Amino acid sequence: MATGTGRILGWVAAGWAAVFLAGTSFRVLADCSAFGLPFTDLGSTTFCAQIAEAYYSGLTNGTSATAYSPSANVNREQMAAFVTRTLDQSLLRGNRRSALDQWWTQTPRYDAYGSPGLTTVGLSPEFLKSDGTDIWVANPSNDSVSRVRASDGKKLEDWTGATWAYGVLVAMGRVFVTGYLPPPGRLYMIDPSGTAGPVTTVASNLGDNPYSIAFDGSRLWTANYSGSVSIVTPGATLPWSVTPKPLASTALQGIVFDGANMWVTDANGGTLLELDSDANIVKTVTVGSFPSFPAFDGHNIWVPNRNSNSVTVVRTIDGTVLKTFSTANGNANGLSKPTQAAFDGQRILVTNYDGGLSLFKATDLSVIGNLPTTGVDNPFGVCSDGINFWVSFIGSGNIGRF
After folding, report:
1. pTM of the predicted model over 0.70
2. How far apart are CA 307 and CA 330, in angstroms?
3. Is residue 69 part of a domain?
4. Is residue 101 part of a domain?
5. Total structural domains in the chain?
6. Tens digit of pLDDT for each residue in 68-91?
């Protein structure tokens, strides 16, 4: 849209585009044609380099093939195009995937025809998390945690003694795993630099049935299906201190931290709850039926709603529901008992317990596509290693790289 979204003010070129080149030295030229620009209406300006950056990065195309219109007004609609293009460029060029030449963003596939393909871990693997190098998988049915190398999918070792291992968190240079059964809940710790063996128990008095776990920078929080959160404060000696916080809710499942507050899903209430640092409920957002394990993308929380076959996107700054993906809204994207969401810096991937994966673009809340998972049963947990997504399959005892 050369005559619309391509229009840009002189102050935008001088200010916004200058941000792109902050700290970079360029020779000031009055003739912008020296930069290979096609525009003939720039006159004598000292901002040729910044305009060139905006043009060559795709931020603006000018108002015609040869006109830049540096003094033309920019309306809010056009400014939105400039800002979102800038955001997309920063995501494309600034993340780990681009540095490793992983440019694709379309629907992924699992590597069924070669390494790493599917990696056999323990029994009924459910949740998993990456530390940037390896994938840590909780296997509740044989009380173990498997370590899988992300680069090639090779299982490296198993850690034992994690009774009914469930939620997984990587923080403080350690791997933490919740023990779901029998009550009360437990918290286990693994030192990745140590020799594989029994896990270390750091707390044995969490709330009953701790499903998931998050970290606020100093304390660990668990969402307990029995209707409470537990706040664990690390200490110099074991066991660590646990502060119980019962909520007027039941069936708490997922928990994520947005940099300021915790958010938990109340499956029976069909709500997403925002908690302050003392675990007081400060906001209640109605989402869908039986919300499960959400993901935070830096701005919004994506909540899979298992029983309503939908995903609700909630803006954290004010709790506004921005969008709901569902059959009723015509954008279900293959959702079928959606269970967990994960974010890779650009995309959101949602597992569907009935089979298949649903992929969305985080920046504009659009559908990318969905992928069948033929030959493997019950996709459940999902995480990103910064390049690829990894999915656990409860019914198959495997995890797969996508």
Report:
1. yes
2. 17
3. yes
4. no
5. 2
6. 888 888 888 888 888 878 777 776
